[in-house]
Specification:
Helix content is about 10%, strand content about 30%. It has 6 helices and 32 strands. Strands 1, 3, 5, 6, 12, 16, 17, 21, 22, 23, 27 and 28 form a 12-stranded mixed β-sheet that branches. Strands 2, 11, 13, 14, 15, 19, 20, 24 and 25 form a 9-stranded antiparallel β-sheet that branches. β14 (about 190-200) and β15 (about 200-210) form a beta hairpin.
């Protein structure tokens, strides 16, 4: 077993003393919640703060989520399958495959098929190629009032701590099937549907087709019935902020002591000096929405779409919370990463049982940007536990020999990103039967332009590739037309927040359907590219 001194020596050996070495900051911020004891297995919703974590986009190595969760299937106690991972994660953040990034976070759906073989991030956005789609057809567009770009859903530029409400609840669109793509493999009926609550759009947006999950059983029949198409959701989820890369640098002084500097990293802060990052973590059972909508589709009274409070449970936060953030050279093994003394400058804070955030040590953080608090930039590696610990210091405490105070984190020069495009060709489900209107264009705040068309709901490519018969597609069409007539974008669905303000989506994505296509038609993005430079 390595000694603490040896572990620290291994870390320092990777750092040249002549000049700062580029390294990274990464890890998790962990949020403690009370366990849910009742069988609330019909999804969840949350309000998560949205803000620009960094003041400048640092290039495509940057990958971090903001606060969010992972929704896994629910299994009986001690019956969780081994070596089987599938969930809905995604949320707010930045990803390495983002083509058109900015400092404003985007939202992706993050449906993960068995062991990451299939991934669906939104309509037309996922893993694979159009020759071998492994999630590209996994999400069906549902609303006629919101365009979902191929690069992820955009928030309005300038968002700065407002709360973005989202969640997934099952909707009774489909029926369970005994066969999948002609094979004796079952497909469940769960259509996990994304609901949003933003200041300029509310309601259901799109849903994962059951086939997105069940198609994994064609490769491995043992997983049939074990995925989210067939199973309810586990209400006891992890709530964290997952950071995979923030730019940093390390250097040693003449004595051999290690110092680090991190690119300015900020959190939103209110007038009282505290931060809210999560609010109203809510679990649902089928009384919340599913039962009422199912009765409506079966000929009963119209369902308003508002959550039935009898079917919801708002989780409380527990005291505490922690961080696994560390600063280290790329490739450092997990057991050799020294921790960051997070609690020296950030104290967990819950102004009420359903809200979580932080108080800040004013001696170590700064308030140089409106509405934001910037974390310490400088750290010194000292002895602590097994691996040592990075403790915040001021710029004047950093020896000049390290060169850290003179350096800058300049964004790298990168080539313009290639467009995102859907499947070319005339004999594809994008062209047969094809759209009813278009092309149209939406110019987004991220500097891109999206080309989109209006398709009849049942004729959109995701539905045509969802292993549905013509009769099943038409039955879905009837249900969706009922929603379009009644569930508008400006009524309440998820219970509103009781603190803060709602974030806005990029207004260029909020649409009005063309005349004659108001009911039963949806906008489908087919191309996204950098907008032409303004002259």
């Amino acid at each position: 077993m390595r000694t603490p001194a040896l572990l620290t020596a291994c870390l320092l050996a990777a750092v040249a003393s002549a000049a700062p070495q580029k390294v990274e900051m990464a890890g998790y911020l962990i949020v403690p919640t009370e366990r849910v004891t009742e069988p609330y297995d019909a999804g969840f919703s949350i309000y998560a703060a949205a803000w620009p974590l960094l003041s400048e986009y640092p290039g495509h190595r940057f990958q971090t989520g903001l606060f969010g969760t992972w929704m896994h299937p629910q299994y009986p106690k001690d019956e969780k399958p081994k070596d089987l991972y599938n969930d809905i994660e995604g949320g707010l953040g930045w990803w390495r495959d983002t083509r058109f990034p900015s400092v404003t976070p985007k939202f992706i759906m993050g449906g993960v098929g068995v062991n990451f073989y299939d991934i669906a991030n939104g309509p037309g956005y996922g893993r694979g190629t159009w020759e071998d789609p492994r999630g590209l057809y996994g999400v069906a567009q549902l609303t006629p009032w919101l365009l979902f770009p191929l690069d992820g859903l955009n928030l309005k530029q300038g968002v700065n701590g407002e709360l973005f409400g989202y969640g997934y609840l099952p909707m009774p669109f489909a029926e369970a099937k005994t066969k999948t793509e002609g094979k004796d493999v079952p497909t469940g009926a769960n259509c996990w549907t994304l609901f949003l609550n933003a200041s300029n759009f509310k309601g259901p947006v799109c849903f994962f087709t059951p086939n997105f999950w069940s198609r994994a059983a064609l490769r491995n029949p043992a997983v049939a019935g074990q995925m989210l198409d067939s199973r309810g959701s586990d209400p006891n989820k992890h709530f964290q902020m997952e950071t995979q890369y923030v730019p940093a640098a390390m250097a040693k002084d003449e004595k051999g002591d290690a110092y680090a500097r991190v690119a300015p990293t900020s959190f939103p802060v209110g007038a009282d000096g505290t931060t809210v990052v999560l609010h109203r973590l809510t679990c649902y059972d089928r009384r919340a929405l599913y039962d009422g909508v199912k009765a409506w589709f079966d000929g009963g009274p119209v369902a308003s779409g508002a959550i039935n409070p009898a079917g919801e449970l708002v989780q409380s936060f527990r005291t505490g919370g922690g961080s696994t953030w560390s600063i280290y050279p790329q490739g450092t093994k997990r057991e050799a990463k020294p921790g960051l003394d997070w609690k020296a400058f950030a104290t967990p804070h819950s102004p009420d049982p359903h809200t979580y955030g932080y108080k800040w040590n004013a001696d170590l953080v700064t308030r140089t940007r409106p509405g934001l608090v910037t974390l310490p930039e400088y750290y010194r590696l000292g002895s602590f536990g097994k691996n040592g610990r990075w403790s915040a210091v001021t710029a004047k405490d950093v020896p000049a020999a390290t060169g850290l105070t003179q350096m800058t984190f300049d964004p790298p020069k990168e080539k313009p990103q290639a467009p995102r495009e859907t499947q070319p060709g005339e004999k594809t489900t994008w062209k047969i039967p094809g759209p009813k209107a278009g092309p149209f264009q939406a110019f987004l705040g991220d500097g891109s332009v999206v080309t989109y068309y209006w398709y009849r709901f049942a004729d959109q490519p995701a539905i045509l590739n969802a292993d549905l018969t013509p009769a099943e597609r038409e039955a879905l069409q009837v249900k969706v037309e009922k929603l379009h007539r009644t569930w508008t974008k400006d009524r309440e669905y998820l219970a509103p927040p009781t603190v803060g303000k709602l974030a806005a989506l990029d207004p260029a994505q909020v649409l009005t359907p063309p005349k004659g296509l108001e009911i039963g038609y949806v906008p489908i993005a087919t191309r996204q590219e950098l907008a032409p430079a303004k002259k």
